Amino acid sequence: MKLAMIEGDENHAELLRRYVKAWGRERNIPLALTTFSGTENFRSMWKEETDVDALLIDVRLEDAEKKELTRFARRKHAALAIIFTAGFAEDTEEKTDHTQKSVGREKLFRCMDRVLQRERQREVLTVRTHGNTLELTADRIMFVRAQGDGCLVEFCPQRGHTFQIECADSLAALEAQLNGENFIRCHRAYIVSLDKIRRVSRAYIELRNGSRIPVSRSIYSELNQMIRRRAT
Fold this sequence. Notes:
31% strand, five-stranded antiparallel beta sheet
């Protein structure tokens, strides 16, 4: 599990790091934790790297700053779990936010357990390839393209490692598995993840990894509206 933490107080940050590592040892969960001393260096990182399962935010930040950070982080990672540390968050807009009243070990453990449960229940796409069955985490899929009698799935498990998987399933069969709130048929031969879109023109969609795929004229306006709603 990959975590990021925004915490300006080094003593508090060190305590949280110990608690998180202890939770990982007890649950036998490998962890990678990146700590940011302020919001600006986090914003700089987040423009390039979003391969994080949960974000820990110091609740002592101003309310406006907490809301802005939540929106900022979710523009690229809509399903991101957020844990507010050191107090109750005044306003948590998303159901996936978890708050804790103090830095207390057990309270943090309960929050982390809920994040872990959600990760284990994360949506997967089951595909058939070369006589085998693969389960792909849906939020790592960039797009699906019809190809011959099957499909090609562009998959990005982590930064810089995008690859393509050929499968025997039809586009319609894979579309039926994917959550309509996160994916859209943008063209007769393409399904795209809304979270992975960088920008849309009338001719094509540019994804966050630089890939470009076509967009149908009939879906252009609806697609732009959906993207704007997700950004607010």
